[in-house]
Design goal:
Mean pLDDT: 74
CATH topology of one domain: Immunoglobulin-like
GO molecular function: signaling receptor activity
Shape: rod-shaped
Keywords: Membrane, Signal, Transmembrane, Transmembrane helix
CATH class of one domain: Mainly Beta
Largest sheet: 6 strands, mixed
Low-confidence stretches: 1-18, 170-174, 200-210
GO biological process, one term: immune response-regulating cell surface receptor signaling pathway
Distance between the termini: 205 Å
InterPro entries: BTLA (IPR039257), Ig-like_dom (IPR007110), Ig-like_dom_sf (IPR036179), Ig-like_fold (IPR013783), Ig_sub (IPR003599)
CATH architecture of one domain: Sandwich
Protein name: Ig-like domain-containing protein
Order of helices and strands: HEEEEEEEEEEHHHH
Length: about 250
Amino acid sequence: MLLTVISCLCIVPAVLSSDECSPGVMARREKVVVPQGSSLTLSCVVKHCGKNWTGNWMLENSHHEKLIESSDRYYLTNETLSANETKLFLNFRRVNQSDEGSYGCKIIWGTGHISQGHLTLVNITAAVPAGRNLLHRFLICGGVFLCLTVVLGLACCQCSRIKHQHLPGTKSTLTHKPREQPRLAPTPLPRRPIPKKRSTSPCKAPAQSERRAEVVYADISQGSLKQLGATREPAQSTVYSSVRFS
């Protein structure tokens, strides 16, 4: 029984202490690469639990270790996240090669205790020429515009092809028909002249009728008639006989 009471007395303070706020510095260990002449912002979160504290930024490199104060190259700001937490910022106006190194938050508590978070390694690279950067942007924009133009052109061609497939009569209605030329009547073949018959010629018929209507008068003498009768021989007579057998 006595041991149970003692164990309960030991567990209760531990549970109460776990619910209490524990101060500290929260920061990530990372590496940042930035070109020379660019701006940069680093941050860390301080969990102070409402206690007195003082926050600073520290630089460590192969040459020295120093605290950073606000100047024409850096400026320090902070933001209150809650009653127990505050976020610190280190802002670089323009970085150069001398700013290369490891940066971290350094907190001095009211009791004199010092806390430090994880460091962020900053590497400075050569500056990118402005003309080169502008050229890259121009090439990127031109490539995007060209791709969009090609895609839109292919889409329009595909849509028109699908419409023509679904509507086969559309092409005939939209196309202009050639103007029909007036049809000319066929020229008749030349007729051959029909030869006129002499017997049926209308021109000669009246001549024959006129010739028939003519009256010819002749003067015949008696002597000429005698001569004509003398020259003619008498016609031989034909004798018919019948033969009868008994």
